[in-house]
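Methods — Computational structure assignment.
A single polypeptide chain was analysed. Its primary sequence is given first, followed by the predicted tertiary structure written as structure tokens.
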Amino acid sequence: MKAIHFPKEDTISKPKSVAEVEAAMTEMDRIYSTTFKSWITSEANIGYISVHKRDLFDRYLSEDPFVLSLVLQWMTNGWNTASICELLLKLFYSYKIDSRKFTHLLAAVGKNWDFDRKCNVANSLLIGETPQTTAKFIKHFTEGNNLIDESMKDAQLKEWGKEEIVELTRYIGHCMRWNDVFMMDFIIEYTSLLFTDNIQKAAMIASILKEFESLADRIIPEEIPIPMTRTSSDSTMFEPSSDSDADSQPQEPTSEDEAIRREVFAIRNRSSSKFGTQREAIAFGMKVFGRVLLEAEVEARIETAADRLILGMSLNHVNVFERVDSKWDFDSDVVGSRGKDVMEE
């Protein structure tokens, strides 16, 4: 029997696109008279692949995640959402679902998906997860190429806009039927990822809590426009946030943290939600969430544009944003059409 001699690894050029992966697999099948391409791209073989080939995929995730993302794009082309999620969870179950390793790989694999497919995959992966895990997942999944993770720079991932992040979160919230307490926990966790300074974070979270504490006095319409720009007269005390991996840098608790914990506990232990419907809770939460994203973006722009003193920013200003039942000036609305398709029981 004639021996098969595989080419040396250093003679094989790394693929730079999905088309090059396809060409390489086709050529391999031709040379060795195999049907590997059709076998590994079949959804019926997910179980075998995830058990017997997991070490190979895991090694590539550590050594060359960009090439791995191209292979997974090629493999899963045409697959349904359930199959994609099953493969990724079985192959990379040793990684936390909200880790940058996993979320950046997922973002690279799905960079050419339409928005609905991205929402569906994210929603499927987050079934049963906590508000904290959900916040980290969405933050990392949508942040684009982060400077901390140089391994994915060739994927050229684009950072999501505020409107897209809000719409993704709105969709997941409707599908998961979040109540106001879950929404509050999610927004607080997301805020802690955006603002890493203790004073900044405490002030922003205190403003969020004030909104949720006063729900008894609200009448919330089902469709609430979310502010995505603010007037130049608005001011804030926060320092701009760095895009550091906040969840991997624990900070010592402060007195402000303890006060926040007590307020959160009180809100969580209310006898019932203050909203008439789940859609109202989502609409209210998305307006608060949109304002948090807006504050973070403006602060980042201030850092790169000019010195805070030149802009006349007052460091004594502690009211981070106006009450959500106030009238804000904004140029664009995010109404949340995708949420309308979710039937309420």
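Note: Residues 272 and 286 are 20 Å apart (CA to CA).
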